[in-house]
Amino acid sequence: MSGENTIAVGVGGDVGTYALIRAFHEQYGIKGVVLSSVATRPMQDSAIVDNVVVPNLDDTETFLSSLEGIARQHAGKRPVLLTNADWFVREVIVHRERLEAAGFVTPYPSLEVLEQVSSKEGFAEVCDRLGVPTPRTVVADIPKLVADGGRAAVAGLELDLQFPLIGKPSNSADWHYVSFPGKAKIHHLNNRAELDEVLGHLVDAGYPSAFLVQEFIPGDETQMRSLTAYRDSSGTVTLLATGRVLLEEHTPGTLGIPAAILVEPYDDAMEAATRFLDATGYVGFANFDYKLDPRTGRHVYFEVNPRIGRNNFYVTAGGANVARVLVEDQVLGRPIQPLRATSEVLYTVVPFGLLLKYVLDPELKTRLKRLRSEGKVVNPLKYDRDTGMKRRLIVEAITQNYRRKYAQYYPEPTSTGY
To answer: Which UniProt keywords apply (predicted)?
Structure first.
């Protein structure tokens, strides 16, 4: 069997899933299948994606039976299962035996490892053991607050941290199900009243997990970093890529997701991530979020996502095709020399001019203009082998729509990023 005999099967219709299908197409010339609960614009009129719309895809049996149907339709090819959504990652791991019986390659860690690393407290415990810096954190145990009196207990939560603070869920999969006014991927909290309001909504909703309140590391979004890694089934980290985040998304549902990344090598982060993955026995793709602390000059690590991440195309564009490390390991079963994505490239999903508005450092702006003049600016949706006229118009509309989003949610750049 060769890589050409595989088929990439993505779950979820976002730009990150398209980027994964694109990586497979670039490396092996194969089209992919993407399942989504509704038709999505990143997949619309694509020549390399067959977008299958499955209503109620987040119902477990619907999810599993739909994938089994895809495997049957492509009998004779080895389907590789890809997703960037935490809930789907968990479903794949929990039901791995059934999916593998249908023929799927499931490149994800064990359930035990997932439980350890996807919990922000578990992540911090491993980092502390390894001497990897993390932010000071207070854990708000929502079920305990509910048991202690609900909203009446919120005001009694002890908080030995100074505002402003960052609030975020400990468990992203549980966060998928909770709904309350003002819910965001990450909450920026300027005072105790704002914190108590969020905690009050969570106790009212009966949220079953912890909510983390963390110190805010100073600096704007250009101090944020991203690291993507792949640790193969033999225990070797065969892919590492790092980049400087230049701009994050600011709509409530996508807050904190990088919209632009400059590929840059950070050896200390690569070393820390390797030690973390080795210590936990991790297998598969992982994406670390971290930030340069200007007070100490050290990188501070926030979390690891047990998946490749929505912004994964910065890795492929930086010289390390993500499809190759996966197929060589899990389909062909052969070792490869570890890859590093080190080519200086700017990844962006927003218009270049809009990005420049939010980059405040003059030297960094000059550097980005140089990269554009050298043709080293990439948008994952703008693929020269997927360029029908209607497709080009759709992708340009998606790109330009970011102007409206930033005008509404983040109209002017700030020194903090919010």
So the answer is: ATP-binding, Ligase, Nucleotide-binding
Query: Exposed (0-12), middle (13-18) or buried (19+): which is 387, by Cβ within 10 Å?
Result: exposed
What's phi and psi for 348, nearest 5 deg? -150, 140
Residue with tokens 């400059």: 262
- Mapped onto helix, strand or coil, the DSSP state of residue 174 is helix
- DSSP class per residue in 26-80: HHH---EEEEESS--GGGTT-SSEEEEE-TTTTSHHHHHHHHHHHHHHTTTSEEE
- 342-388 pLDDT tens trace: 999 999 999 999 999 999 999 999 999 999 999 999 999 999 999 99
- The total of other beta-carbon atoms located within 10 Å of residue 296's CB is 10
What does the pLDDT look like over 181-204, one tens digit per residue?
A: 999 888 999 999 999 999 999 999
- Interatomic CA distance for residues 336 and 353, integer angstroms: 39
Q: The tokens of 104 are what?
A: 């799927």
Q: HSE on the CB side for 322, CA within 13 Å?
A: 33
Q: Which residues contact 88 (CB under 8 A, 6 or more apart)?
A: 11, 12, 58, 63
**Among 258, 226, 231, which residue's Cα sits nearest to residue 241?**
226
